[in-house]
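Case study.
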Amino acid sequence: MNIKETLEKIFRDVFEDEDIILTESTTAEDIEDWDSLTHIQLIEEIEQEFKIKFTLQEITGLKNVGEFITLVERKLSN
Amino acid sequence: MNEYRFEDIIEGTNAEFQVAVSEEMLEDFQRLSGDTNPMHTDREYAREKGMDDRICYGMLTASFYSRLVGMYLPGKFCILQEISVAFHKPVYINDILKVSGKVIKKNELFKRLEIDAKIINTNGERVSKARIKVGCLE
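After joint prediction, the assembly is written out as follows.
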């Protein structure tokens, strides 16, 4: 499972919606229940799944899922 | 009321208190929730269904988890975000419950605490357990 597929699984679990299809341009605007709490849940699940830790600076600048994937790739390569 | 700030807390920080369940609490909760299920209001019915007496509302006992985080751990600066509760045994009027919780994880990024909590009755039986996630406002 690649990073995008893993993120998609996490998104589906957090939002309890098996129909979610992530693309690189997906943003919070595209997912109705994406609010501040689900955002925290997403970050926590992603950190746990990939065994990485984000900083506040890293996650506040993210514009879409594509940037999320790039960030995870960078953290994994460090 | 405790006033723990996020930085005051470490994994393992814990708190507990005791509370006696009264008939008045059941009546208040019935009015508040509108739940008049006979398991909570009719002793004979509850006995027919295998209970010792009418039983306390599970969500009434769960409200003690609100007290745990709002008053004790972390207290004043708490904002309750998530809770999952399991009810293992019935609670009856006049039961004295020990409600306790321990911080098992700190999320520095979001100033968030994960707390393992449980309620024990006077016989030492665990009547419920909960996993609680709270934010710290300070």
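Observations recorded in class. The mean pLDDT of chain A is 91. Chain A touches chain B at residues 37, 40-41, 43-44, 53-56, 59 (CB under 8 Å). We will return to this complex in the next lecture.
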